[in-house]
Amino acid sequence: MVDNRPGADGNLGVNIVAKSPADGYTLGFATNGPLAVNVTLFSKMPYDPATDLTPISHLAFGPNILAVNPSLGVKDLDGLIRLFKANPGKYVISSGGNGTTQHLAVEMLKKAAHVEITHVPYEGGGPALIDIVGNQVPITFCSVPACMPHICAASLIPLAVTSPQRSPALRDVPTIAEKGFPG
């Protein structure tokens, strides 16, 4: 039986797993948020990921895409960085929420490129994606599966991926490291 319990960046569902009997009948599937990042974001966690959970397997790796709305007029990461540097603090970039891998990618890019941009956290990747496609926010980091239909429809332009290697789904899109920002 699948019991999807979203909320609090995964903390709600993971807490149920953590508080369940350790009888082998309850398994959880979670992203890095409730397992690694949330302890730095929430002052009080309902569970301790280091002691209340037993990892079984790493199931998937999912890079993010730095994408822009076509109306921004930017075609590559170099152009986006030039735009940021020419207009410090003018642009906003969305993510699926504070502490998500997308948010961390925003902060890492800001630091590596020495640019001023404002992070706009959404309550999930879906609302963030709706607003970039609708041109409410011009720039985002989003997951490959979420962005692909919009990239194929040309309603988003992919500039770079966060993985160490290019994504098999986007072989022509460089990595952020290839563009001069390793790590």
TrEMBL record:
<protein>
    <submittedName>
        <fullName>Tripartite tricarboxylate transporter family receptor</fullName>
    </submittedName>
</protein>
<dbReference type="InterPro" id="IPR042100">
    <property type="entry name" value="Bug_dom1"/>
</dbReference>
<dbReference type="Pfam" id="PF03401">
    <property type="entry name" value="TctC"/>
</dbReference>
<dbReference type="InterPro" id="IPR005064">
    <property type="entry name" value="BUG"/>
</dbReference>
<keyword id="KW-0675">Receptor</keyword>
<comment type="similarity">
    <text>Belongs to the UPF0065 (bug) family.</text>
</comment>
